[in-house]
Amino acid sequence: MSETAKITDEVDVALIGAGIVSTTLGAMLRELQPDWTQMVLERLDGPALESSSPWNNAGTGHSALCELNYTPEKNGLLDITKAVNINEKFQVSRQFWSHQVEHGVLGDPKEFINPVPHVSLAQGQEQVDYLRRRYDTLREHTLFPGMQFTDDKDVFSEKLPLMAKGRDFSEPVAISWTEAGTDINYGALTRQFVAHAEKAGTEFRYGHEVTRIRPDGDKWIVYYKNVHTGDRKAVRANFVFVGAGGYALDLLRSAGLNEVRGIAGFPISGMWLRCTNPELIEQHRAKVYGKARVGAPPMSVPHLDTRVIDGEKGLLFGPYGGWTPKFLKKGSYLDLFKSIRPDNIPSYLGVAVQEFDLTKYLISEVTKNFDARMETLREYMPTAEGKDWELIVAGQRVQVIRPAPAPRFGSLEFGTAVINNSEGSIAGLLGASPGASIAPAAMLELLERCFGERMIDWSDKLHELIPSYGRKFAVEPELFAETWERTQNTLQLNR
């Protein structure tokens, strides 16, 4: 693209991507600095059409209540560090959303968050023993309220009738659960943020794809094109945030950030089985997570999952791992090949050698037909019939591969990572799970990195937005109890 494209606008903040992360940052900055102008550029024709779309993710409030991969066991010792950290971050989300509801930024919370029990499933004696140890470890912890456990088949059948029907209980089975879980429609949440942002003066340009970013003194020029007409323009911004999902890495690279040198991206897609039988959907009310297969990435942990989308209850199972070279669901098959650079080739090669189990897993998943996928579902729901389910494509994720010393050369990471330049004038979010559910916490990290000199001036407002800011619930149970009750009431979760 020509760098002589006409600069038609000047803004304080340019946000690339109209998903939950960009709109979260935009909402925070409007609270902290309402005089700053904002513009959002989105390549698709509306907000939340990629990873934030409700059927492109599991909709789990990732508070680590039921996800077993967040509580690994090594040499008989259970490590809950990651579960606690993720839970703390999700509490930041609850506080921020509550503030936004209380002040009219967000509307009816039932449109985006609903109470749904979170359940962990163990099958086989080894898993049952592990789950009991996990329960014993977490049940007294401040951040995991109301945790329960049973290995009684009658209680199992009462809690999960759809999963009990036809089950051979001669194999040991157990569940732990809490009623404190939630289901979240990140698409609806994003749209509510967008509606308020438009009223506040933020300009959204849909169907406009950012092609590159270039420095302009202490500012940035963001070049973009209209995907429908081909018209090319540019906007000059004081600060740029790249919330473009899988395309974020290449856009940050185009800006010349040394911080992304050597970083590569590994795309992983997925598929769901979605229930089409209303009678079955009504028989299940829980997010039931099991153990991942060897080599499976964290976002592929199997779960039988109640959803509440646009007021309708739904049920899905999966995800089944998949692979495509696209970096976005609506991306190009050339994305992976175009992202390869001399500086990140060692990272790619290093991971290719190390992640053999992951490669085998993805190959096995890609080659599964519908009947094979149904057999996997029957491990959770023994009486499942193919006529009651349809296969849909889930969202596309790009995991970060960071350069590493020899002999590894590359390290594949499953999680989110905030990247910014040393001046704090441009930043982006890379990676995936747990992603959307901890967006406010990730954006707080971004504010600290990029606007450190303003944090003292913003302090009072930040504590209004997030009362626990700078504190940890894990060591302040009274603060957690007080905050939990307030957010439960504001988000109408006591229903």
From TrEMBL:
Its EC number is 1.1.5.4. Pfam families: Mqo. GO terms for molecular function: (S)-2-hydroxyglutarate dehydrogenase activity; L-malate dehydrogenase (quinone) activity. GO terms for biological process: tricarboxylic acid cycle. This is Probable malate:quinone oxidoreductase. The keyword Nucleotidyltransferase does not apply. Belongs to the MQO family. HAMAP family: MQO.
